[in-house]
């Protein structure tokens, strides 16, 4: 089963590709991570130089001013940071208006907040009285707040426009400008740090403003098949997101006060340093989550796929960093003093480990933002705040600062578990159900296998290209595969083609079967069929494994059911190879008995053999002795093996790939029913059971599509069971390394076998319901 996946350049650009990412989501996420790293390093350099070049009192006043500026600007964003990321991808022609209105609203909010601060300055910042010395000072502070809120908001505008690659460029230029400005403003005394912070930001705001105007010159992306964006939706989203942000930001700050109250100032310092190091890993998922929102809002059909990609990317980055942090962190704390290493190390290690479940939390709340389920976002952050505050108050008294770290780890784990159990991770499309838990876990397992396949592909591709006499300086695309074959599209001087590389004996067998089948089809069928079937150009052996080189068909795998065109495409094959046969015991052995034996062997101890035997008996009773139409069949006809071009309603099938499960004679109805089952939102087992409960749903689906099943006299329950049996048997034989696991078996096999656990099957109709 093949589906298009990531894009990889040739070896010359490999290093750049690893940094940039395989697709838009990776590229934008990595750009934001780089931006965070650049900002952090440059920030440390700035403060180190400030400490050397400026008097201590100027630095102290400067840090307070920057803290106030940051607080007011963040409040003045009015929740529109994520609002820009969420709504700009679908704003269409109103993109510029949304950006300008949002920036104006935030600027006015910044002015209002700066006025409130200045009025109350004697109450909460007595040392900053110089801010009200004269009109120039007031204007400078208010203007700085406006500049800074626009500076903050512009990052999110670029993310929402899916141009995150400009964010690290902007922040690097700003950071260098800030350092360069420091000696120029050193004579400004108390205003020096603020001047060095704001003046380069003015240039950045102007520069990015010009860039944004250029990027939105022709409006945003068209909003085909989407309802118009509502200002009310944006306002409600921003209001809820601002509440969630305030809770999130308040959580560590309030916790610092709790530690101070319960254990004193030393413990508070220990916690602060431990959290500062541990929290840095949270920023990885936060950056990836921002890119996820933009990509999912731009392409909502693939939102679940984007979520799985984002989570896999987060785990790949956070997991090794967490291991390094746990091992190296205590030594880093010694730089601050032995007391910190002695009292904060375990807490820091626990907070670092909490970044692992936080990958699920971070991706989940961002997928909730995509779905506009802001209640999930707010409830998650409120739960974390309440759990961390309440739990830390108790554990501080037992274990000190270590108890705080343990509480944070438990809280993040509990939040992640709750989001998974309620199906609100966004990893699976459709409404949350109990099946969402298993489906999400299965999708992560699939992502891990595909990651392994990409590593194997990078290792094996060069010798395979040599064996096929193909120049190595080519562009390659890794194509997803659920079998033990590595599949790569190759473009270069030798033309465009696909390489399929076997990695196991099962893959050798399947590739040989695939090559033989497509060869037969090209000899047997006319152009109406063969134009959809790849041509095997070469078949070689590399290190004892089979490699097949075949033509690259146009089109891409669909993300939604393309409708009647898919049924019509496979029907061409069925029609041109159709004939009538009598189902004999020999044919029943091929169709039923051998697949049933493979399915029964999936469970240790053959726990479900009796149920599978009943299914086989049911199928034999319904088929043996009947005259039916048979033909060549694909055997695994689902969207991942179909290529399409065009957009609805003008889609066309341009290719059908992966023919290793093809059968002649086969039951053509099984191909069509398999397509129906694979396009349901539920797992295979649940989809089959739904048809057994209501066999008419299959007939209604194909009637609506204008498709007539080749054997309308057969009961849909019988056909769906046969299609299920073949699919499960093929899935087991297709792979020995990436074969069906226990979760897949539990979701795809057990629901069906349980219906046949008793003496009589639990289903509507029967095998003879339509017997002539």
Characterization of this structure:
By secondary structure, the chain is an alpha+beta fold. The chain has four domains: 22-229, no CATH class; 263-432, no CATH class; 458-551, Phosphorylase Kinase, domain 1; 564-755, Aminoglycoside 3'-phosphotransferase, Chain: A, domain 2 (Alpha-Beta Complex), CATH 3.90.1200. Helices cover 65% and strands 9% of the residues. The chain is built from 27 helices and eleven strands. A six-stranded antiparallel beta sheet has the order 1-2-3-4-6-5, with helices on both faces. Helix 13 packs parallel to helix 15 (401-421), helix 20 (585-600) runs antiparallel to helix 21 (609-623) and helix 23 (684-693) runs antiparallel to helix 25 (716-734). The longest helix has 34 residues, at 338-371. The model is unreliable at 1-22, 221-226, 431-436 and 766-772 (pLDDT under 50).
Low-pLDDT regions: 1-22, 221-226, 431-436, 766-772
The main pleated sheet reads as:
6 strands, antiparallel
Fraction of helical residues? 55-70%
What is the first-to-last residue Cα distance? 37 Å
Structural class: alpha+beta
The total tally of domains equals 4
The overall pLDDT average reads: 82
The backbone outline, from C-alpha atoms, is elongated
Q: What is the assembly state of the chains in this entry?
A: single chain
Number of strands: 11
Over all CA atoms, what is the radius of gyration? 31 Å
Domain Aminoglycoside phosphotransferase: 477-685
Subcellular location: Cell membrane
Transmembrane segments: 27-49, 61-80, 101-123, 135-153, 173-192, 198-216, 237-260, 272-294, 315-336, 342-365, 377-396
Protein name: Aminoglycoside phosphotransferase domain-containing protein
């Amino acid at each position: 089963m093949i589906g298009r996946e990531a894009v990889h350049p040739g070896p010359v650009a490999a290093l750049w590709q690893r940094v940039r990412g395989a697709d838009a989501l990776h590229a934008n996420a990595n750009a934001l991570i780089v931006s965070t790293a650049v900002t952090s390093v440059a920030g440390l350099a700035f403060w180190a130089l400030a400490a050397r070049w400026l008097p201590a009192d100027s630095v102290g006043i400067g840090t307070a001013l920057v803290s106030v500026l940051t607080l007011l600007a963040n409040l003045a964003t009015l929740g529109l940071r994520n609002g820009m990321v969420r709504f700009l991808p679908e704003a269409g022609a109103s993109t510029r208006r949304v950006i300008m209105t949002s920036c104006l609203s935030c600027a006015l909010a910044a002015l209002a907040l700066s006025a409130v601060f200045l009025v109350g300055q004697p109450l909460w910042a007595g040392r900053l009285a110089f801010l009200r010395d004269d009109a120039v000072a007031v204007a400078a502070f208010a203007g700085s707040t406006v500049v800074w809120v626009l500076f903050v908001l512009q990052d999110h505008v670029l993310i929402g426009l899916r141009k995150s690659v400009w964010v690290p460029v902007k922040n690097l230029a700003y950071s260098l400008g800030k350092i360069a400005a420091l000696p120029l403003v050193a004579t400004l005394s108390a205003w020096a740090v603020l001047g060095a912070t704001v003046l380069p930001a003015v240039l950045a705001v102007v520069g990015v403003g010009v860039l944004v105007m250029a990027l939105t010159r022709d409006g945003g992306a068209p909003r085909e098949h989407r309802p118009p964006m509502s200002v009310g939706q944006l306002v409600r989203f921003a209001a809820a997101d601002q509440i969630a942000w305030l809770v999130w930001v308040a959580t560590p700050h309030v916790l610092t006060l709790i530690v101070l109250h319960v254990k004193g100032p030393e413990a508070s310092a220990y916690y602060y340093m431990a959290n500062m190091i541990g929290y840095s890993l949270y920023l990885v998922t936060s950056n990836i989550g921002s890119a996820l929102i933009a990509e999912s809002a731009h392409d909502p059909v693939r939102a679940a796929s984007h979520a799985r990609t984002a989570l896999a990317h987060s785990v790949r980055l956070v997991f090794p960093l967490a291991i390094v942090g746990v091992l190296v962190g205590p030594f880093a704390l010694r730089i601050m003093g032995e007391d910190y290493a002695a009292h904060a190390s375990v807490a820091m290690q626990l907070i670092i480990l909490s970044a692992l479940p936080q990958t699920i939390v971070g991706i989940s709340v961002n997928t909730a933002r995509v779905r506009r389920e802001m209640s999930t976002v707010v409830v998650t952050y409120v739960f974390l705040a309440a759990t961390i505050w309440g739990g830390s108050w108790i554990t501080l008294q037992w274990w000190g600062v270590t108890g705080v770290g343990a509480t944070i780890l438990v809280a993040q784990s509990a939040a992640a578990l709750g989001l998974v159990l309620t199906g609100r991770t966004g990893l699976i499309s459709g409404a949350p159900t109990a099946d969402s838990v298993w489906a999400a876990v299965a999708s992560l397992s699939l992502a891990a296998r595909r990651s392994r396949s990409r590593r194997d592909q990078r290792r094996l591709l060069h010798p395979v290209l040599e064996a096929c006499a193909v120049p190595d300086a080519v562009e390659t695309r890794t194509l997803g595969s659920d079998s033990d074959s590595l599949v790569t599209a190759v473009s270069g001087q030798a033309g465009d083609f696909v390489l399929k590389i076997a990695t196991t004996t099962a893959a050798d067998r399947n590739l040989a079967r695939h090559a033989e089948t497509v060869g037969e089809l090209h000899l047997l069928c006319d152009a109406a069929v063969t134009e959809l079937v790849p041509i095997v150009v070469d078949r070689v052996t590399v290190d004892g494994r089979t490699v097949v080189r075949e033509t690259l068909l146009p089109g891409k795998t669909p993300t939604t059911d393309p409708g009647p065109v898919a049924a019509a495409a496979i029907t061409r094959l069925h029609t041109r190879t159709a004939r009538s046969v009598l189902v004999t015991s020999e044919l029943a052995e091929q169709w039923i008995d051998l697949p049933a034996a493979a399915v029964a062997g999936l469970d240790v101890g053959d726990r479900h053999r009796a149920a599978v035997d009943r299914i086989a008996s049911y199928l034999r009773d319904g088929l043996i002795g009947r005259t039916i139409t048979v033909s060549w069949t694909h055997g695994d006809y689902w969207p991942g093996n179909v290529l399409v071009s065009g957009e609805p309603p003008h889609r066309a099938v341009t290719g059908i790939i992966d023919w290793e499960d093809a059968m002649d004679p086969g039951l053509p109805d099984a191909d069509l029913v398999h397509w129906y089952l694979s396009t349901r939102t539920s797992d295979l087992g649940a989809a089959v059971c739904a048809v057994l409960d209501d066999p008419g749903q299959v007939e209604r689906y194909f009637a609506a599509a204008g498709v007539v099943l080749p054997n309308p006299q057969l009961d849909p329950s019988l056909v769906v069971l046969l299609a299920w049996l073949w699919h499960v048997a093929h899935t087991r034989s297709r792979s020995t390394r990436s074969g069906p696991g226990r979760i897949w078996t539990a979701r795809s096999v057990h629901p069906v076998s349980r219906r046949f656990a008793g003496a009589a099957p639990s289903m509507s109709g029967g095998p003879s319901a339509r017997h002539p």
